[in-house]
Amino acid sequence: MTTTKTDTSKATRRKFLTGAAVAGAATVAMPQVSRAQTVTLKMQGSWGAKDVFNEMAEDYVKRVNEMAGGRLKIDYLVGGAVVHPFQVLDAVHGGQLDGAHTVTVYWYGKHKAASLFGTGPVFGFNANEGLGWIHNGGGRELFHELQTQIMKLNVVSFFAMPMPTQPLGWFKKPIKSMADLKGLKYRTVGLAADLMQAMGLAVAQLPGGEIVPAMERGVIDGFEFNNPTSDRRFGAQDVAKNYMMGSHHQATEYFEIMFNRAKFNGLPKEQQAILQYAAEAVSSANEWKAMDYYSKDLVELREKDKVNVIRTPKDVFDTQIKAWDGLIEQLAKDPFMKKVMDSQKAWVKRVVYYGLFNATDYRGAYEHHFGKLEL
User: Fold this and answer.
1) Under 8 Å CB-to-CB from 175, ≥6 apart: which residues?
2) Residue 134 or 15, more confident
């Protein structure tokens, strides 16, 4: 029997379709197995319900839940729902929580190196450049070393949201010089607390929700939290009318999104990837949201709430830099902390040099269109 070209083509086509059908059945069957059970993670933030940071945490949860397609879900709780906002690390480490949305500075009391990953010395880099160091300059590996080798934590973390410089904060009287800060009772956290103490202030470390009541009771004379939106939402403008903008105390910070390591390692690889890459995605989304919110609320504070928005005096910046020098010398006695700061400085020397040397004159362009800035 002679096989024609047409017969051969039909046989080949039948073979292809048969194979495709088998492959298709396998392709359909596999996801049904992996999607059969939803993994739910319980996460708590370190933020009050009204804080913009809580909204930013929910932005992360939304991205995870939508990308996971029902296979993975995060149930998010506001700060204090399960544990105190400063205690989420212990809860995640111990498995009381599966995850947390926080900042490393909230647990720096366990190891001061935690503050280097968000609220350390000012070497000249902003938070975006700091995230660059974490992802491409060795910071991630150093943080992993801190978590696993030094502190033995059952935690894995991702970083998100390059925060703008944090204002010096809120005061009942304008800060006209460094002399006006001496002796004040001041709220801050992390190494910034060490910095301010070295500058002659008395420091109280409080979570956001406790700041305004402490100011009302006279427990503190001044405070900083983070940004105009958070500050305005919890009523800073109701207890002080002088908002000092700019400071070297916390110039480079980001969120820490942490998970119980055993729980994380037990997830399928694709779900681990969703948790990781959602942090990278929300980092940009949070930053863009902050540009919009923070700028609008600063205008509202000045025009609607009649707050005196004032640039921090230069001698305060100068005093802060000198105080940082003293702290750096002390911190560098710890070999790991020295290694972290040396890594940051190597990154800053190269990356910030490029940024500063190449940047256009943004201020000149701004003043050309909108008038001279009064700083």
Assistant:
1) 168, 181, 242, 244, 310, 312, 313, 316
2) 134
